[in-house]
Amino acid sequence: MAKFLRWPNWLKELYKEKRGDPGEIQKLIKLKDLHTVCQEAHCPNIRECFGSGKATFLIMGNKCTRNCRFCNIGSGTPSPLDISEIDHIIDSIGIMGLNYIVITSVTRDDLHDGGAGFYSDLVLRIRERYPNIGIELLIPDFKGEIGSLEKLVHAPLDILNHNVETVPYLYNAVRPQANFETSLFVLDYYKKSGFITKSGVMVGLGETIQELLETFSRLVRIDTDILTIGQYLQPSLEHYPVKKYYSLEEFDILRDKALDLGFKEVFSGPFVRSSFKADETKLVKRR
After folding, report:
1. I need a labelling partner for 195 at 20 to 30 A (CA). Which of 7, 94, 144, 274 fits?
2. Rounded to an integer, what distance in angstroms lies between the CA atom of residue 247 and that of residue 11?
3. What is the mean predicted confidence (pLDDT) over 41-58?
């Protein structure tokens, strides 16, 4: 069984500063029978984001066909796709008054295209209803299958995000059903298709700084535009244990080194997550 490494006091104090009333967004999500990664993954930013009227929608249910050891989203047999989910998300965007939206999903290896077609349909419907909204997708790897990846090539979105999550050395221990090279292939495929690409890593899983820098370099070599770097926080005793808490100074150093390597934007900090303050990117042209 994994053990908890206690949060350092400075991190606890930083977390206490996160304020906001998530009530209204929680009510809306429940009313529309939707899921958010904010809730399912126990994101530390939930009060801040929900309190400011933001949320990251989790589509295609809340059961993942994979079982990564860092992730709090439930795994198991997913329910069939629910087409009404698209209408509920579109309605919620209007009620929330969003001008930028981040959408992610569980991994659906049970579907012939991994759910890529569902993503595409959703983006097209959102763009029809809200032509000026910024759209960012945080996608699974779709097993790296070209037929699935192609379904998003012409989707009218702004940023294509796919997280490598950790350094290659830790994949077997942390996300054994995934493959680092497949994730790089997905990012490279969409960059060559003309998208702004984004990826993220967690730190504190037992990686070395040199391994992180080598991972950053691999992402830069395929022209990944945006990088997020955040602290891994162990959701429960059953999850992969935290090996280290990085200091604020170390996050600043990682950000500077990543920018020096060639990323256009880098968001680095203990509570940075893929979608946290995603709307602050300067790379998306506002319509």
Report:
1. 94
2. 9
3. 83
Task: Locate the domains of the chain by residue range.
Answer: 9-280
Q: What is the Cα–Cα distance from 82 to 236, expressed in whole angstroms? A: 30
**Which residue, chain included where needed, has tokens 């977390």?**
15
Task: Find out whether 102 and 123 touch, Cβ atoms under 8 Å.
Answer: no
SS3 assignment for 110-126? CCCCCCHHHHHHHHHHH
**CATH, range 9-280:** 3.20.20.70
Token digits for 20?
A: 């906001």
Angle at 39 between CA 75 and CA 114, to 5 degrees: 40
Both tokens of residue 102?
Answer: 């981040």
Residue 269's identity, in one-letter code, is: G
Q: Which residues contact 185 (CB under 8 A, 6 or more apart)?
A: 144
C-alpha span between 73 and 67 (Å, rounded)? 8
Cα–Cα distance list, 192 to 32, 124, 197, 285 (Å): 37, 21, 10, 19
Beta strand ranges found along 153-241 (DSSP E)? 159-161, 196-203, 226-231
Tell me which amino acid residue 192 is: K
The tally of CA atoms less than 13 A away on the side-chain side of residue 237 is 2
Q: What phi and psi, each to the nearest 5 degrees, are found at residue 284? A: -90, 125
Whole-prediction pTM: 0.95
Query: Is residue 238 scored above 70 in pLDDT?
Result: yes
Q: Is residue 48 scored above 90 in pLDDT?
A: no
* CB of 238 closer than 8 Å to CB of 200: no
Tell me phi and psi for residue 79, to 5 degrees: -80, 160
- Which pLDDT does position 2 carry in this prediction? 61
22-35 core/surface letters (b: 16 or more CB in 10 A; e: else): beebbebbeebebb
Largest CA distance in the chain: 50
pLDDT of residue 23: 76
